[in-house]
Structures are given as C-alpha cells and as structure tokens.
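**Polypeptide and fold**
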Amino acid sequence: MHPFFSSTNRILILLASWLILTLSLCGLIGIVTTQTFIDSSILFAPLYFLFLLFVLPNYYVCRGLPLGQTKVIRLLGSHGLTLLVTVAIWLGAGQAYVALLGSVTDRAIWQPLFDDALYINIVIIVLQFEMLVLIHYLFFALEKSRDLEQAALQQKLLISQAELQSLKATVHPHFLFNALNTLSTIALSDPEKAHRFCLLMAEFLRYSVAYSKKPSATLAEELEHVQNYLGIERERFGQRLKTEFTIDQSLRDQLVPPLILFPVVENAIKHGIDSCIEGGCITIDVTERNNTVIIKVTNPVDELGRKLKGEGHGLSSVERRLKNRYGEQALVKIASEAGLFTIKIYIPIDTEQ
C-alpha cells in the first residue's frame, strides 16, 4: 500500500496540501492567461487532481529503482519514460475534459484557455512529478534510517540479554556451591534455621529466573533481592558480615535493569568481606540528584588479605548493560582508597514511567 494511504490523517493531509497547491496554480494561470480564477479553476483543478492519481503509483517505480543500487542511466531513463507516458495521458485526458466542458457549458473559452496554458502546465506537471519522486525517495531514506535504528536497538537488546545470561551462568554456580556447603552445615545443628535458609535461597533463585526475562524491575525489588542474597551469605560469614542501607524511599518504585545490583554486592562479598579476617560492613546508599538515581555500594578491603581470582564478568557486565540501555546517560564509577572499595552507579530517572 502507498504510504499516503496508510491512514486517514495522511490522506486528508495529502488532499489538503494538493488543494492549496492546485488553487495557487489556477490563480497563477488565470493571471498569465488573463482569465478569471473561477474559469481557470473549473478547467485545471480537476486535471491537477487527476495528475495526482496518475503520479502516485510512481511510488512503486521508485521502490523498484533504489538510489545507490541502480545505475544512473537506468534511473534517469526509467523516470523519464514514466514522465513522458504520464504527460501524454494527462494531455489526452485534458483534451477530453475540454470537449466535455464545451458541450456542457456552450462556452468556447475552454480550448483557447487550455492551449494558452499548455507550456505552463507542462512545466508545472514536470515539476510536480519530480517533487513527488523526491518525496518518495525521501520517504525511503527515512524508512531505511528507521529500520537501521530499530535493528541497532534490537542488537543492543540481544547483547543485553546475552550479558544477562552470561552473568547468570558465571555467578550462580559459585554462589550455589557456597550456599549448599553452608546449608549442609546448619542442617545438622539447627533444622529450623536450615528451613529459613532454604526459603531465602528459593526466593533468591525465583527472582533470578523470573526477572532475567523482564526488561525492568523496581528498585525496591532489586533491593529485596540483594537482601535475600545477603541473608544467605550472613549464614556463612556470621558476625563478620554487617550491612547498612540508606534508601531514599521516593525512589523505591523507580525502574532499573533487573539483576543490576546483585553483581555489585556479590563483588563486595567476594573481594571485600572474604578478604578481611574480621569481616566488615557493606553499605548501600540510594539517593537522587539532578534526575539521576545514584547507587553507592561500599565495602572494606584488606590489601594483605586473601585474594580470590575473578574474571571480572560481573562489574563489566553491569557497565555494558547500562550503556546499552541508557547510552552516555548512565555511568559506573569505581574508587579504592583507605581500605575501602566504592562503586557508584548513575541511572537516569524515567520521568514517563
């Protein structure tokens, strides 16, 4: 279907624009031929609208001769031939319409008026033809640009999904190994605690599976997921693991990418708390500044303590996913000083959610 006919609004805009152009041209021809505007409009207005019907199917010719993929000679020749045929048909239709007007009105002005404006009309028709050809090619260019943009967005989505699946595959086996060891220890001594531990694991895994397929989660859901994870790890570290949350409650419903906090907190456990003999406190602060959510995660680091090897999938995946979704509006900053390791995540606030 021709794009002009894809909606009622487009049809109305096309007809209104063509009517304005037609009336302007009829007024111009009336002045040049010293005829009244009414006579000029009676003769040429229907013919101009007829020409519109003749030239709109050229859309399919333009689509079959894409710019950049068609030789210049073939391009010019095809459009030139189409123009000649269109002009010839229009002139034939014009002569028939002149004869019809002469028989209906019994006035002899129509043929002289048509002949006097012949060369002007040929120039007008050629210009209108070329204008519509340019409009068609402009539409194709915009359509191609839109398709490329959609393809780029789709590619970003696929990359983000791949990153998320990679994150799940690399993190969960490590986490489950430690969690099952912890469960086997407490199951013998405290069945009730083992039961609560299993519930925490079930909720943690449920969220990981469910939200890995969703585009967004609320900040409150992300924080709850992290708290479940910390509850599981607290059974392993005991008093060595302390936590402190400072959350701006007005941001709890803010949408963020799912599973964006877990890799950061897991990193704080793996390379922070686990490296300190006496453990330490993980602090999570969530604030807002300049329409940006700022998530700050801080953990202690013992430079002389035990170091666990890591491939860096977690933090690099967080940064790539944020860039894919928000572009340069999102930011991840890392700082390490005075025995503290800090990660700040900057996420723009979605004001339309």
Notes: The mean pLDDT is 84. The two ends are 35 Å apart (CA to CA). The first helix runs from residue 8 to 33. The chain has two domains: 3-148, 190-348.
